[in-house]
Amino acid sequence: MSHHLFLLSPSDTPIYSLTHYSTKLAQQTSSSLSSNLPTWSTSAFAGTLTALSGASSATQSHHVQGGGVRMGGGQDRHVIQMIANASLDIIEDVMRKESAMYLKSVDKFNEWTVSAFVTPGNMKFILLHETKNDDGIRSFFQDVWELYLKTMLNPFHTAHSPIRSIVFDTRVRASAKKYL
Amino acid sequence: MARVLPSSLTPHICILPSQDLEELLQSSALPSLHHILQSFSPLPQVTTRTTALTTVPHTSFALRFSDLTEIEAACREDEEQRATRTIDWIGDRISKRCAKWVDDFEKMNDRDVARTPWWDELRRCAEGDHIPARDEGWNHPMSIILAVSTTAPNPLQAITALHSRTLDFPSWVDVTHLIYTLIIHPKNSPLSDEEAGALFNAVKKQYGLHTYLLSLELPSPPPHPVSIPALVPRLPPPTISNGSADTVRPDLKATQTAPLNILRMSEQDIQQTARFAREFVTMNLVPWMEKCVVEWNETYSSSRRLPSRLFSSTRRLFGTSSTTPVHSSTPSLPARSNTYTAPQSSVSGSTIPPPSQQRRLAEFATILGDSKLAVAVWESLRKEGKGGSDILPLLIAPSPAVQLHVSHALNTIHPKSADLHSHAQLRALLYAVRWESTLTIGDFLSDTLEGERWLVWAAGNAEEPPAALLLAHAALLSVRKNARRRAALWYFFAANRLEKCGIKPLTMYFLRRARELSISRPDKLLSPSFWMSENKQPSDSEGFDAVMSGIEHPLGRLLYTTGDVSGAVRHFLGLLRWSSASSSPLAQLSSHTVDITKDPSNSDKVFLEDFQVAISHLKSVSGEQARLADIKLPLRFVVSSQACIRLARDSVEGEQSEWETREEIWSSFWKHRGKEKLERSGNAAVGEAFWVDITLHNPLDTEVTLANPTVIVESSSGDAAWIRDNITIETAKDVILYANESRTISIAIKASKPASLVIAGVAYDFLGLLPTVESLARRGRRLQDTPQQRQTITYASDEFLKLHVEEASQELAVAFVDDGQLVLAEGECKRMKLWMSNAGSRDIGEVWVVPGPEDQIWIQPLNSGEGLATGMAWKTWQSDNKIIPPRPYSIPLTEKLVAAGSTEVTIVLHAGRKRKQDLSFLFIYREAQGSPFHCTRVTRSYEVVACLQISTASHPSYSSDHSFSLSLDLTNILSSSSVEINQVTTISANWSCSPLAELCSEPLCPSQTARVLFSATSTGDCTSVNAVSAFVSRKISNVLHGQAIAPDDPPQLELLCGHVSQVQVFHSLPKSSLIPAPSQSFAYEPFVAHFIMDARRVAVSRSLAHSHPRIPTSSLPSIFPLYNPLSVDFVIFWKIPSEQRSGHILVSEITLGASHAMLREVLEGVESAKVKRSMYAETQREKVEMLQAIRDSEWNAEMNPIVVIVEDGLVIEHDFSQGVCMAPVKFTIRNHSLSHPSRFVLRLDHSQQSSSHHFHASYCGRTTFRGLLEPSQTTSVLAQLCATRPGTYALSDWRLETEVGEPDTEGGPWQVRHCYEQRAATDSSSSIVISDLSQP
């Protein structure tokens, strides 16, 4: 079961991302759904390309990972990012209607539920998760917010600079481990 | 007014034509009857009545007609199989036509508003489903029209045959339908109109009133075709191989393929038929339906009535086992077939019941527009879990409940965990289509309903074309709702699914839409100040990097497979923009952390491979390069800021900064002398190669090859052809850059004519395939000149690397004659010869050499020959006391250095500090006065080793004839050679030093030490001291107050020299003669005086720069003088005969005499000044540091100037038998200050605890002595020591209090400047011995 966290600046520039694999057991098995997530099949024309390039298609290998610990469906980075990106539309809508910072589950795409947290400074924290865990996510967001504020105390940190602080990263991971 | 229902919810009428009718229609070039009737289908203005007898007007009342046999056949087909076939059929239809659709659609302007043809097609296909289904009654035939014509041999018999035909429906098909008889009476019928009327009456009598006689003209040449609305496409029946393919009608196929639907009927026939259709609906069908609804409603409401429900529940409670037929969902057939019960063949033993009566009631009520009843019945059905959720959204007002109905409806058909069956997919599609087409677009897209999501839910996980089109339509609707990012995602999902079905044109269209939507960023409601504070433009913001690559990569691949290779090449190349090299923060983040989500298919390697394949293919196909011209690489490999030009002469080793220092020395030197410029050394010569160093950085995380890298050169002197002819540009080897690697390559250029070149760019073949040119332009500086420029960021125009190639007309070649390894002893003066030759074509008339700031050199004048040593001994030396900044030396030339001429110059180097270093000379030369300077460089390394270890010491003298004693210890630290000390010279402004003994004549053997002693006496003239002090304190005050430092010179100094030379062999000389005779004087080399001053300059500059790091080095010379008047320098002249080395070492460590915190007033003034707060803590810190450095400097030294000397070691003999001994003890008190008077109080007491074992001296008589000492004055006091017994008495029991007064207070009050108290040193062993004479 995986979680994907994105921190977005007020202009929707992502400044931090985290992929967290929870060790907690998923309440439901939703493996079948994930298999239907877009993993771009190159089969239609892989033959031509492969024949021309002489390279074996590496794209097929990553969705053969059956059994064992499933690392969360929809491993494709671009699909995850697209979902996070698409959820911004609804987040902006909800933001206007609700005054709370924690917006709970704002949207659902396939098996991914999108939870969001909007700071008073209009920073958006987006979390893609597969199971319902409202309280954990709320605490997690609070933690991330606090850590983010501490990072922003750095006068050289602007709203657009990517967060590369190792301390921030470690603490967010620790918090994710605790709550998610 | 009733809602217009989607056509799939309209009454389904089946027609069973007789054989003769079919023949008749064929002969009249007409399609089959159900097709004819279908074209009359939406009837305008039909009125129905509800159960409450209110009339409901229908603006259009649609019917569906189909062939009974066809339906019967279709019912036999497995539902799942048919669903699969339907989906394939839809996919097939769409894939056949989408290319044209996409082409047409792309040309439209308002693509987001228009209806998409594929959605219309999908909807029509879904709506066209007319086969009865098991779980709903909509498609179950509502009426069966038995149609015959009067052309039959026996029409009545034909009618009877049709009536007696057994319906071949499975058991689950509802048989509640209206049987209707239609007699078509054509004009050319064998029956006359009367006969036809008789037949009609007979039929009416036999089969009831549901009969109609339709008289048609059917003219024999078919009339002009009339166009009719397109028929809803219907799933063609399966092609069965066992011969029963007769059901496939040719006309069916014809209508499918015909672009326009036409009907060749005369106007009169059309009116007749329309009248029939209207009569059929209003007179027969609707009343029949109303009757059914009323009857069923009775049953329904009776079952809902309280008693009945109560009874049924009591019965259930009390276990009565009687079943109520009213409650049964499968009522007995006779009760329902109130009009007609067709004999039904039980095809199979299946006992699947037809749809329940309650459901049929709901459906009928829905069709009749009795929405109140319909909603109630559907609700109750829904509560019982028998469907209804799918229809309710169409009937009830928009509310959040609608969304729940929708999701429930979809959840019941979508199995949660399994793959979606075709049947379920089709059902979901049908629901979605019904919802979409029935609800108004405003309601559908409203925030309460969010209908576009329903389509996505309906699409589920299916990967068939319908699901993809559902998603695409959801995306289209999202765009209308201005949710563009979500739309992009759904378009992408749609494309992804569609691609698997191989419908490429539409896939590409969807991907293009997704791309367009992703590129256009939504408007953000952000304050303009946000962007100002971030110093960014709103257009600068970067989104998710992988989104674009995720869309563009499949798009590129699709373009490649569809043959648009050059488009694919462009896309693959564009992908690199979103790759790891992207400027997106997220990509930057992921590049430095290991991102597990990083998809291998998404990495640069894959993009590059695809690009490589595509471009090689493009090249092999098109074969020409012109098409590649507009393909631009979105990346930069060249780091333009690090590109530089390297000339051949630059390759002389040595730090670049060292050479820059020398050039600065030259420019500051020449600034005051002339305006001639030093032509930068960055001018290449004709015919001489120079190199352009280019740093390449691979931003990708995969390996790339840059083939044939070379530079693009532009010249103001000529065009490209000229450059080609006259400038040779090398092409470097192919460069393979590994992931994120940086490498510098050098490209050689040689010009054969003078030119002014601009290095415009770098050209290479990306991967050896794509010729690319990258500019080497660097952004100009930020402009700050006008307010406008300061407010909005403006930069000067781009800068390029520029280079002048000139004729080598002026070129001086310089080389050391002896270029071997050079090891010098510290302080050694080494003569070196340099060979200068004119390598250019023009004369050289003036040559300068610029050494480093710490290099001490001397250029031998031309006429001095071999440097004769002069034997003069200086006594005094006039110094301007100025730290002269390092400057160039002019090299004297006997005559102009003509072309190819050469000369030799001797340079004497004085080895400075012990270390390994480079001797770097910058030679600057020119032809004559007025012409610009050129330069060349020469360097060699040398090592300096120490030969003597020198230590100095000074202490106040005990002797009264001089104030201080100086000692100089010299140790030979060489391992083997012995060192001769030829002479030691002291240099001081204020102290005249004289040697206390002559120098020993023997050479100093290894590890031996010699000591030379000097006495120092003040000249007594402290004007120079005061003048220099005043100068320094004024300057320091300026520095501390932050005022400008005037470049005025310090007061001049006259330096006194004292010498001690090696006494040769003149032992006969009286020892007392301390000053050596001139005849024995040491022979000075001509450069010694220069080197002594230079060494002092170097030493002073170095120590000042070290102790005052906060004062700029350039201003130090105008603050501090070269000599402190109180300092004493030693110059030790040495010689190592065995190695033929000689030299001198300057030691300037000693400062004699007392000084009295000369800068105290200045520092106090600064400290008491009003504190100006600085914004920056660092500035404050720097100020404090500077103040501290000045406080600790030698100019602010402060000490007790009074020295007490006790007469020591006296031995007094006294006869104690005669009483106590009174011994006189003499205390000599000397004021070492040259400027300040002091008052003193000497107290003799016992308080001092001496550590020695001597007796304490007890004094009698006067024990306190006061006095005033003028500068440099000495006085002595006599105390009486009272000894009661013989012994050794310690003379350390004294205490001296000193008050240093201000000078120049004659007549004025005594002003105390400093106070001190001193006692004898604890380890002082001064003593007096009193021996007793009485005890021999």
Listing every helix as H and every strand as E from the N terminus to the C terminus, the arrangement of chain A reads EEHHHEEEHH
Shape of chain B: elongated
Side-by-side strand order of the widest sheet of chain A: 2-1-5-4-3
Strand content of chain A: 15-25%
Number of strands of chain B: 49
Q: Biggest sheet of chain A, in brief? A: 5 strands, antiparallel
| Assembly annotation | heterodimer
User: Which bin fits the share of residues in helices of chain A?
Assistant: 25-40%
Biggest interface between protein chains, with counts per chain?
A-B, 61 and 72 residues
Q: What structural category characterises the helix and strand content of chain A?
A: alpha+beta
The chain-level mean pLDDT of chain B equals 80
Q: Poorly predicted ranges of chain A (pLDDT <50, ≥5 residues)? A: 26-74
What does the largest sheet of chain B look like? Answer: 6 strands, mixed
What is the gyration radius of chain A calculated from CA atoms?
Answer: 18 Å
Indicate the overall shape of chain A: globular
Structural class by secondary-structure content of chain B: alpha+beta
Q: Roughly how many Å apart are the termini of chain B?
A: 157 Å
Produce the secondary structure layout.
The complex is a heterodimer of chains A (180) and B (1336).
Chain A: E1 2-8, E2 14-21, H1 31-34, H2 43-53, H3 77-97, E3 102-109, E4 112-118, E5 124-129, H4 134-152, H5 166-179
Antiparallel strand pairs in A: 1-2, 1-5, 3-4, 4-5
Chain B: E1 12-17, H1 19-27, H2 33-38, E2 43-49, E3 55-61, E4 64-67, H3 68-76, H4 79-106, H5 117-127, E5 143-149, H6 155-163, E6 178-186, H7 193-207, E7 211-216, E8 226-227, H8 250-257, E9 262-263, H9 267-304, H10 306-318, H11 333-336, H12 357-368, H13 371-383, H14 392-395, H15 400-413, H16 422-438, H17 441-445, H18 451-459, H19 465-480, H20 484-501, H21 504-519, H22 528-534, H23 545-561, H24 565-575, H25 585-592, H26 604-622, E10 638-646, H27 656-671, E11 683-685, E12 690-697, E13 704-715, H28 720-726, E14 727-729, E15 735-737, E16 742-751, E17 755-766, E18 770-775, H29 787-791, E19 801-806, E20 812-816, E21 822-825, E22 829-838, E23 846-850, E24 856-859, E25 876-879, E26 889-891, E27 902-910, E28 916-926, E29 934-945, E30 948-956, E31 964-972, E32 980-988, E33 991-995, E34 1009-1018, H30 1023-1040, E35 1053-1061, H31 1088-1107, E36 1127-1136, E37 1141-1151, H32 1160-1168, H33 1177-1191, E38 1202-1206, E39 1210-1214, E40 1221-1231, E41 1238-1244, E42 1255-1256, E43 1259-1260, E44 1264-1269, E45 1274-1283, E46 1287-1290, E47 1294-1301, ...
Parallel strand pairs in B: 1-4, 1-5, 5-6, 6-7, 11-19, 21-29, 39-49, 42-46
Antiparallel strand pairs in B: 2-3, 8-9, 10-12, 12-16, 13-15, 13-17, 14-16, 17-18, 17-19, 20-22, 22-27, 23-26, 23-28, 24-27, 25-35, 28-29, 30-31, 31-34, 32-35, 32-36, 33-34, 36-37, 38-40, 40-45, 41-44, 41-47, 43-45, 46-49, 47-48
Helix pairs in contact in B: 4-5, 4-16, 4-21, 5-16, 9-12, 12-13, 15-18, 16-18, 18-19, 19-20, 20-21, 21-23, 23-24, 24-26
